[in-house]
Write a structure and sequence with these properties.
With 289 residues, the chain is of the alpha+beta class. Helices cover 51% and strands 17% of the residues. It has helices at residues 8-59, 64-89, 94-111, 113-128, 168-172, 199-211, 247-264, and strands at 136-138, 143-149, 153-157, 163-167, 177-178, 184-193, 223-229, 234-243. It is elongated.
């Protein structure tokens, strides 16, 4: 369109049409724009407060990793709803957008299936807390002291000082034995004595050993008994309870003390032995009288 060929009347009419169209657009979308701005302001404020509330609620249990994760999920979930509401203000059909987001989410979920399994397992571990940092656990495939519980994996330190990273899905999908969960742990001090030795003396000696160690608990009190009449020895047992934090050192010390004390009192701890009877097949049977 060549504006040089237009007379002033035509130019004025064109300008009037443009302003009329702009005025119409402003009138049509003014309330939508104002509504969208209000929704955005309120939505961001609600998302911020929801994030803070979720973080405080979860962090009370001391799970900062889970608190940050769930707080972020709450914030972005609210912002997604806010975005859909803003689009609706301008007449956008959000049903197709939601369907597209759902399809995209499904595709991403299938692609990251293993990762999402680890996240889900991590959330369950942090919620149910079958173990905590510093506990010694055994999952069948992973054994060690827990160093960190993350959303994707659990870090362990093995007894020989190695670093072990176990995926949460593997840990959660196995039986978990937590040796540090309870405050007390039982130990059976079992010693085999000879059949010619005095059983009462052996039991009294065991009682003297366990009661002489201050780490052995009085409640439950030690229980002493004869457990088995074996092929080579009579097994006597002192069943005691020890604080979990002292279990490893105490159980080893009691075993050492038992050997030293039994030797000092002349109570034998026999080696495995068998009686062998040899028959000579070539020797003639004695004649019957």
């Amino acid at each position: 369109m060549n504006l040089d060929n237009l007379d002033p009347a035509q130019l004025g009419a064109a300008t009037s049409n443009i302003f009329a169209m702009m005025a119409g657009l402003v009138t049509a979308y003014a309330f939508s724009v104002i509504g969208a701005i209000i929704i955005l302001v309120i939505g961001f404020w609600v998302a911020k407060k929801a994030k803070q509330a979720v973080f405080r609620l979860v962090n009370r249990r001391g799970e900062s990793t889970l608190a940050h994760f769930l707080a972020g999920v709450a914030r972005y979930a609210i912002l997604t709803i806010v975005l859909v509401m803003v689009l609706q203000q301008f007449g956008v059909k959000t049903a197709s957008i939601i369907a597209a987001l759902g399809a995209a989410g499904l595709a991403i979920g299938l692609a990251l299936q293993g990762t999402l399994q680890n996240i889900a397992a991590g959330v369950m571990l942090l919620f149910l807390r079958p173990f905590k940092i510093g506990d010694f656990i055994d999952t069948g495939s992973a054994t060690g002291v827990v160093q960190e519980i993350g959303l994707f994996a659990t870090e362990l330190k093995t007894l020989d000082g190695l670093y072990l990273l176990a995926p949460n899905s593997t840990v959660w999908g196995s039986e978990i034995t937590n040796y540090s969960y309870h405050q007390q742990r039982r130990f059976d001090l079992t010693v085999g004595i000879g059949y010619d030795d005095d059983i009462d003396l052996a039991l009294n000696t065991l009682e003297e050993i366990v009661r002489g160690d201050s780490r052995v608990l009085d409640d439950p009190e030690p229980f002493l008994y004869v457990s088995n009449l074996g092929d080579s020895a009579v097994e006597v047992v002192a069943r005691v309870w020890i604080p979990t934090s002292d279990w490893w050192a105490t159980s080893r010390d009691l075993t050492k003390k038992a050997k030293q004390t039994f030797d000092a009192k002349g109570i034998s701890i026999p080696f495995p032995q068998r009686d062998v009877h040899h028959y000579n097949a070539d020797k003639a049977e004695p004649a019957a009288s």
